[in-house]
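Retry 2 of 3 after timeout on previous attempt. Resubmitting structure tokens to design endpoint.
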């Protein structure tokens, strides 16, 4: 939990869009395409400042899945997923990637 708190503290005080030392997305840098996680760091920064709409605009997938991740991290263990759940999750991520690159994200 210390690492999460440290990361949240850094993200609260440092705007990822305004720094040169925060790494960008390698896929976006090489191809120009938005990966499913592009904008997550900025979205978390905005969310920590209470800007929920802006955070959702930066990466809707992250904002929709964040409560699920917080729930499982809070419980301390991840569920044992069946293969169908993994395939459905992969399909969701791929569909989101296609949508955000075709629709202009």
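Retry 2 succeeded. Sequence:
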């Amino acid at each position: 939990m210390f690492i999460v708190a440290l990361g949240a503290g850094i993200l609260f005080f440092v705007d990822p869009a305004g720094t040169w030392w925060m790494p960008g997305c390698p896929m976006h840098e090489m191809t120009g395409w938005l990966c499913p996680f592009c904008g997550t760091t900025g979205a978390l920064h905005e969310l920590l400042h209470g800007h929920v709409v802006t955070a959702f605009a930066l990466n809707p997938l992250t904002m929709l899945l964040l409560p699920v991740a917080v729930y499982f991290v809070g419980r301390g263990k991840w569920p044992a997923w069946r293969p169908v759940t993994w395939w459905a999750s992969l399909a969701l991520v791929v569909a989101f990637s296609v949508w955000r690159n075709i629709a202009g994200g």
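Attempt log closed. Residues 2-102 form one domain.
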